[in-house]
Structures are given as structure tokens and as C-alpha cells.
Amino acid sequence: MATPCNVVVLISGGGSNLQALMDSIGTGDVPARITAVLSNRADAYGLRRAEQAGIETVVLDHKAYEGREAFDAALIQAIDARGADLVVLAGFMRILSAGFVRHYEGRLLNIHPSLLPKHKGLHTHQRVLEAGEAEHGCSVHFVTEELDGGPLVVQAVIPVRPDDTPESLAQRVHVQEHLIYPLAVRWFAEGRLRLGVAGAELDGEPLPASGRSIRH
Fold it and tell me: Which residue ranges form the domains of the chain, and what is each CATH number?
């Protein structure tokens, strides 16, 4: 049996995507194991989720470090000490330094609540409604030095309903996040997903610029 892919998950909050990953791996369908969950906030509920699952937790308070580079250096040390093959950002509310991103090039995934490249940054659900758009969704991408700008892996697309609010959109997008993030991790763990010279590749073939699209 192949050695499972060692995954370290970075969180800052509730950890619902972490829970989805734990549940997916727990079925035995994903050849991966979460070796540790790291947070920059000691009160992140996701830490409790990890502890209840018997997964090691580490807290690194960013306020205890002099600047982003010092914090990221400590983060790299903690991640590498746990043998990470893949680093998964699951609601980690820190902008990562260029050095951190380069260190994990091709091994660093993020999920963003919009159909990238649209609506990078925050308040995506409100911005979609204000723009009068017909579709919304979420995107898994490899992380590069450009904020929310790395090569796309997979997107889930949902229709915007006439009666949608930012809250109702957020709820429906969360459901999709919990489906496509474990899928992307599974592809990586199976050796099917990689970051190539020209972008993300699945089964040796370049993915479209928008990634694999799943519509609902």
C-alpha cells in the first residue's frame, strides 16, 4: 500500500473545511492523513475539532513575532517538522510572505469563496449581489505570490437566486467548499494533481484556466 500523503492544515477560525477534510479522509477513500493542524489563534474552534479527532494541534500567535517574515519562518519550521507533503489553507486569515509561498510551491492549496479571478479578497457574497451576477461559487487553487491568484484546480458553480442574501449565498457556497476541497486534496494525494510549468495539471493534462468546473 502506498504511503499516505502527509497533510498539514492551517486555520484561524471554525474549521468547517477542516472538518470536511477529516470526514473525507476518515472514509478511507483518500490516501492522506492530517499530521497536524496549526492556528495563529488559540481560540480557533477548529483546534477543538482536531483534538477531538486525535490530531496534533499547534498554536503560533502571530502577535508574538516581529513581523510577517519572522512568523512565517516559525510556521515553516513547525510545518516541516511534521513532514508535510501538502499544506492546506482552510480559513487561515494571514497574508503569507513570498518566502513562505516559494518554500511550498506546488504543495500549497487554498480555497476562496468566489469564482476566481472574480472577487479576490473579502466580502465576496455581498460583491456578487451588488454586481448583479447570475452565478457564484468557490475555487480551489494552488497558492502563488499573487493574492488569490494562483492556478485554479476546481470550481463549484451555483446560480444566484433572486431572493439571495449574502448570508444565504455564504451558506450555499460553504456546502460546495466542503465538496470540492476534499476532492482536490484527494487528487493531490493520489498523485494525479500537480503544479506544472504552465499551471495546474490533472492526470498529466493541463487543466483549463478556470480549473475543473462542477455546476449545480
Answer: 1-104 (3.40.50.170), 112-139+150-215 (3.40.50.170)
